[in-house]
């Protein structure tokens, strides 16, 4: 993508991000803990990254507004409708992932 001008690259990246949000919205069955186990990020991470990007540019964006954008509805509503309790297996896999991360960061 190095051959693209900055505006085109930014537009493509923004389009890909919007597609990622649509994809996550279409797959509400994918729980945040699943994302954290497999990819080390979740919908909340995307919300925090949006807030950080806004801060870097001097734009005001609060976390709740960012989460509503990422989730497509207020977080509390999404949580009540779609979030399931993490299973013991998910909790164990998440703990193992965290432990492995700490080991590699400690090297």
Q: Could you please describe the fold and organization of this structure?
A:
This protein is an all-alpha fold and 107 residues long. The chain has one domain: SMc04008-like fold (Orthogonal Bundle), CATH 1.10.3340.10. The protein is built from six helices and no strands. Helix 2 packs parallel to helix 6 and helix 3 crosses helix 4. The radius of gyration is 16 Å and the shape is globular.
SS-derived structural category: mainly alpha
CATH class wording:
Mainly Alpha
Low-confidence stretches are none
CATH topology: SMc04008-like fold
Please tell me the total number of domains.
1
What Rg is obtained from the alpha carbons, in whole angstroms?
16 Å
Mean pLDDT equals 95
DSSP strand tally: 0
**Tell me, what's the shape?**
globular
Name the beta content range. under 5%
CATH architecture designation: Orthogonal Bundle
Helix content: over 70%
Q: Work out the helix count.
A: 6
The CATH superfamily bears the name SMc04008-like
Largest sheet: none
Q: How do the SSEs run, as a string of H and E?
A: HHHHHH
Distance between the termini: 33 Å
Write the layout of secondary structure elements.
Elements: H1 6-26, H2 32-39, H3 43-56, H4 63-71, H5 75-82, H6 88-106
Helix pairs in contact: 2-6, 3-4
Question: Which labels suit this protein?
Answer:
SMc04008-like fold; mainly alpha; 6 helices; 107 residues; SMc04008-like_domain; DUF1244 domain-containing protein
